[in-house]
């Protein structure tokens, strides 16, 4: 999971920056997000195929689906990738942990609000971009529950 969802994407960003496909690691321009999202989709898909176990393969596959969805949206509009990430994490945490600990719901809300606050404070996104990103991530996490419960 760490290899395909963190290390390889970081290597891709460094490579894209050196090739001058992106101007900064923050990838603020919508147009510059297209290539990294497209490449991330394929890296995560390969990771899902070679997943260590079924759970990691499912999560990497769903994350690849999220990258594909974000890539399509990004062709037309700047959506919050951080919002999508915290949305997916929220969905996974709420499902896996709420059954055992209702307090997790409050933690998820707190994490979401912190990410939203930070992205707004930086001026990186408006509220709509954050909310749409979060909804995309949360929605992509829903099939995980259907797969795991069958």
Please give a structural write-up:
The protein is mainly alpha-helical and 150 residues long. The protein has two domains: 1-78, no CATH class; 79-150. It has helices spanning 2-18, 30-49, 54-74, 81-98, 103-121, 127-148. Helix 2 (30-49) packs antiparallel against helix 3, helix 3 (54-74) packs antiparallel against helix 6 and helix 4 packs parallel to helix 6. The longest helix is centred in the C-terminal third of the chain and has 22 residues, at 127-148. The protein is globular, with a radius of gyration of 15 Å. The model has no long low-confidence stretch (mean pLDDT 89).
Mean pLDDT: 89
- Summed up, the domain count is 2
Shape by Cα distribution: globular
Low-confidence residue ranges: none
Query: Which class best fits the helix and strand makeup?
Result: mainly alpha
Work out the strand percent. Answer: under 5%
Largest sheet: none
* Overall number of strands: 0
Cα gyration radius (Å): 15 Å
**Percent helix range:** over 70%
**What is the count of DSSP helices, taking H or I runs of 4+ residues?**
6
- Write down the secondary-structure element order: HHHHHH
First-last Cα distance: 23 Å
